[in-house]
Write a structure and sequence with these properties.
Blueprint: E1 2-8, H1 29-42, E2 52-59, H2 67-80, E3 83-93, H3 100-109, E4 114-120, H4 124-130, H5 136-149, E5 153-159, H6 166-178, E6 183-188, H7 196-202, H8 211-227, E7 231-234, E8 237-239, H9 246-252, E9 257-260, E10 265-267, E11 271-275, H10 279-287, E12 293-297, H11 300-312, E13 318-319, H12 320-327, H13 329-344, E14 348-351, E15 354-357, H14 359-362, H15 365-372
Parallel strand pairs: 1-2, 1-9, 2-3, 3-4, 4-5, 5-6
Antiparallel strand pairs: 6-8, 7-8, 10-11, 11-12, 13-15, 14-15
The structure holds iron/sulfur cluster.
Length: about 375
């Protein structure tokens, strides 16, 4: 399994909490699309020997592109790269871009077979607080239309926003469950530097998110979705059996991926790469056929730390046999020793040879994983 991610760095307006790379100025859109195609052409050989079976358009807001622009971009990707017949092709979309003609065009003219809709909330006041470009009526209408044309649908929901009542959160969960949506990605609100939310909090115009509320709402989500038959296959991701995201699963299972576009990251199992996070800078380099890409070689210790961070977040857990085969038997010893205090605190447990987060550990898993990291070990 391996994948290609294409970053579309434009949005209609800036959500207050967002620190992804995007611009609300779409003047450079045509140049950027040309640059994406050039990057794909220049990096073709990097995927030799990979079994490509997922192509993901993320952002930003990929649904800002017209059907014609998507036909051109995806057509180039399929022409240049050797994808499996049954490749999962996901388009991230915002509700305000969705209408019947757009969806019919996608189905008829592209290989998009999965949509990930940025719903975030069904409550008007929460959507306004986040500065989302859509309202709750558009969210519901978008879900209804997507289910008609592309039933393989995922929705994003955010919890832990200041002032969000548990009742409103439960109603949102029950609504997506009731609509039969097969995949849900859900994140606690976090405050990132260089966002409007960060500056509102600094200036006292918004309260900080409350950790207790976020934890309570996380477990409301976990329990209600378990009851409704969803697998909690990764901390922020829930799917009905057979509906896990291939793109996300590849990432958490340490499979290689190629990231195309400004700010996109790549990983080839030995190195981690990242593209320049600027639309004009990205376009300029590619116009001259240069890759705006930097690589960092990963040591065994880096790869082990990354493996811990990603696998502890999943239902598959950290596999001792895999640790031994990939990193060496000494890493098994380190892991067993460092995990002991967390097992005593009932935050982690051994399921045979698999180390997993307990129910209590799940909400804290990123912190636990970084406490297990090995530092300054010689390769
Ligand atoms: S639409 Fe998505 S990428 Fe764009 S600002 Fe909002 S959260 Fe960020």
């Amino acid at each position: 399994m391996a994948g290609i991610y294409i970053h579309i760095p434009f949005c209609k307006q800036a959500c207050h909490y967002c620190d992804f790379h995007f611009s609300t100025n779409t003047k450079l859109k045509t140049d950027l699309l040309e640059a994406l195609k050039t990057e794909m052409r220049l990096r073709r050989e990097e995927t030799d020997g990979w079994e490509l079976n997922t192509l993901y358009l993320g952002g930003g807001t990929p649904s800002i592109l017209s059907v014609e622009e998507l036909v051109d971009l995806l057509g180039t990707a399929f022409e240049l790269y050797d994808f499996a017949e049954d490749t999962e092709v996901t388009l991230e979309a915002n509700p305000d871009d969705i209408n019947e003609a757009y969806l019919a065009g996608l189905v008829r003219h592209t290989r998009v077979n999965r949509l990930s809709l940025g719903i975030q909330s069904f409550e008007e006041k929460e959507l306004n607080w986040m500065n989302r470009a859509h309202n709750s009526q558009e969210a519901r209408e978008a879900i209804r239309l997507v289910q008609k044309y592309i039933p393989n649908l995922s929705v994003d929901l955010i919890y832990g926003t200041p002032g969000q009542e548990d009742e409103s959160w439960i109603a949102a969960i029950d609504e997506v469950v009731g609509l039969g949506i097969s995949h849900i990605s859900s994140y606690a609100l976090t405050v990132e530097e260089r966002t409007a939310l960060h500056s509102f909090i600094e200036k006292g115009k918004s309260p900080s998110p409350d950790e207790e509320q976020a934890s309570r709402q996380f477990y409301l989500l976990v329990d209600r979705l378990a009851e409704a038959g969803y697998d909690h296959y990764e901390i922020s991701n829930f799917g009905k059996p057979g509906h896990y995201s291939r793109n996300n699963s590849a990432y958490w299972q340490g499979k290689p991926y190629l990231g195309i576009g400004p700010g996109a990251h790549s990983y080839d199992q030995k190195r981690r790469g990242w593209n320049v996070r600027s639309n004009p800078g990205y376009i300029k380099e590619l116009k001259e056929e240069r890759l705006p890409l930097e690589w960092e070689e990963l040591s065994t210790q880096d790869r082990y730390n990354e493996y811990l961070m990603t696998r502890l977040r999943t239902q598959w857990g950290v596999d001792l046999a895999e640790v031994s085969a990939t990193f060496g038997q000494q890493y098994v010893g380190f892991l067993e020793e460092q995990a002991t205090p967390f097992i005593e605190e009932r935050l982690l447990y051994w399921d045979g040879d698999l180390l997993k987060a307990t129910r209590e550990g799940k909400f804290l898993v990123d912190g636990i994983a970084s406490d297990l990291f090995l530092l300054n070990l010689k390769d």
